Amino acid sequence: KTWKDAMRGVHSELPEVTKSIVNHVQTSLARAPYNLDDLGAYQAAALSVRDNLIVNWNSTQLHYTRKAPKRAYYLSLEFLMGRTLSNALLNLGLQPTYSTSLSNLGFALEDVLVQERDAALGNGGLGRLAACYLDSSATQELPLWGYGLRYKYGIFQQLINEHDGSQLEAPDPWLEHQNPWELPRLDVTYEIRFYGSADRWGDGSGRAVWSGGQEVLAVAYDVMIPGYGTKNTNNLRLWESKPKRGFDLQSFNAGDYERAVETSNSAAAITSVLYPNDHTVFGKELRLKQQYFWTAASLADMMRRFKNLEKPISEFAEYNAIQLNDTHPTMAIVELMRILVDEEEVPWDQAWTIVTNTFFFTNHTVLPEALEKWPVPLMTHLLPRHMQLIFDINMLFLQSVEKQFPGDRERLARMSLIEEGFPQSIRMANLAVIGSKKVNGVAELHSDLVKRNLFPDFVEFYGQSKFANVTNGITPRRWLDQCNPALSELITTTLNLPREVWLKDLFKLEGLLKHVDDAKFQQRWAAVKRQNKERLSNFVEKTLGITVDADAMFDVQVKRLHEYKRQTLNILGVIHRYTTLKSMTPAERKKVVKKAVFFAGKAAPGYYIAKLTIRLIVNVARVINEDPDTKDYLTLFFLPDYSVSLAELLIPASDISQHISTAGTEASGTSNMKFCLNGGLLVGTVDGANIEIAEEVGEDNVFFFGHLTPDVEPLRYQHTYHPIPVEEKSPALAAVLNTVSSGIFGADGIYEPLLNTVRQGDFYILTDDFDSYIKALEMVDEAYADRTEWIKKSIRTSAKMGKFSSDRAIQDYAQEYWNIESTKLVEE
Ligand code: 26W
To answer: Quick check: is 417 in a domain?
Structure first.
């Protein structure tokens, strides 16, 4: 068919959409429709869908302005959005129409969708959570905006060195082809100051004037966030940095051309790249610049919007709630104080009341190396006025602590915003706590640890009620309907409910329980899983050139590489399985459950041990997959460049997934919820949201192992003061470590530094957990052998995931924290 034939369609909507696509091909892309490739078709379809979004987006923003409800703002340095086209089509209800239109034009929707590059402006859990929350707040018609940075380069691309199997990093130029999902708002700009000097008025008001230094321009780019099954379309505003003037004319005229462009380069550098570390902070000046640039631009923007309401400034907190996604945006607390005190001339105490009624703070990790601390000299140099404000806030705060706990010098030292040392540093978490109305963790256990281990003094000072829990959630739109259309279809027919209903009320999945024993339904459920496993197998074959047996049990661990997440435990377990298979007779092997193990995940570029773990996995895979004795029973894959899109392919295909962090270290985890929602069973430790998942699905449907949180500290202490050799604690593990040392996965002792983390300090207690881990995997094998029972477990798991919808989580924030209400867009 030619595009001209397609234009003569009969369906009333179709010619419209087809026309719009063809129109974009001819005008926006300036291409001819008859020799278009998939990429061109994607671009034209995206532009056409975007036209729909813009209309809804505009109406929504106008509606919010007219209604002037209280608004919430989600400040996050990371938004891990993934692809947009398929999500926009789903949320607009236009999937069938575009699918038909594209096919009339000679394109298959699924080939077109994969042309889109992921928007990967995040590292992992924290950034993807922000993306799920945007989806849920738009879907629930809540007046919420996201604020972030428009990085020119997102998370780096991961390549695997063919030669030695190690991770290589390449830039992620995601904006190379223009991005149809953003609207540049070149008219929405703010001037952001750095450096300079701050002069106090000295009149006892606490006010000061900040001047001089460097000014950088913040330019807004708006990303449209459609809700599902509603016209409400929210906004994610991302800031780009730009020099205030093109270049420094004075230097230019003096003939110093290099100097002339220097300042303009330094301005553009601020939003050039996402920092690729999570869970480790480095205290780099550019990172603090990013944080201030973003929070200052966002607050200026909120302030402008608030001023348009013509309400007294004292009512700021009645119209604005600001959620701090970890401590990264904590400077917003200080910046709002600066605006109120220095610019709005609000008396100090009144300003502090406004601030502490506006902000809410979520902590996402208890690992000490992730807690942000900025050196006082750096802050003084870069943001002199803010340093003064922090000292003043601290003095007044410590006075109030002294009043409640007179003479407790050590308590004051612990609670101070300033940590003594050379140099002194600012404890951003303490600042976030005292500047916020409420503080929360992201799963029950984690929120307990936040109170007990991170902020016990603050709990004593403020009382329990300031500290609470909101268990994380995931959007069932992307993480079920979009990534697993076959399962979504089966659920819809089985529940006998429109998918619009259960996708907005995930507790409805419980209706599957009464079909658990229905053999037909079980068969269909199993067939969907099988189909998803084949889809993954095809992908692996295409990308790695290795065939995967879709009959094997698919065992998946995908997440950022980190010692606390214990990918090392998993790979050592795989080696154990391999050597066990090797020691068997061919007849014995035939009785073993076939297994395909998948890993994926990026390591921070400077994280040596994590990178070495990747190298070990890749090289173990090379040996195992070639071994004629075992390769029919065990295969191993490291899939490069883990991303949201790769997750969408992997998650629906898993039989089991591993969430095996040392107890007490993983705040929540969110992929655990995604796997279970898609009917994959969980192998995990008693940690984070695993605990609540088990509470929902029942302990007999998960495979728990390992020591509990209270055991971990004493074990570490024992490792330090009464080290017991690995051979004594776990002969099986000792044997595996020796196998690696023997050099069959690479000689010259390259893995010794990794093995030594286990043999020596063993901070993440692999030796203490190894045997029970292997036991758990044996239980998995046993359970998997009974196919019917396994399918029932899978159905029961999926059916009980209602709690983990991000719709539930966002409702909790809206009601218990922000006090905002749904504001539905009404047609005029
Ligand atoms: C470099 C500074 C830094 C430090 C911490 C960057 C990013 C972080 C994040 C807080 C790390 C993170 O992503 N934490 C994860 O947050 C998820 C969402 O709440 C949880 O599900 C994960 O358990 C937690 O590790």
So the answer is: no
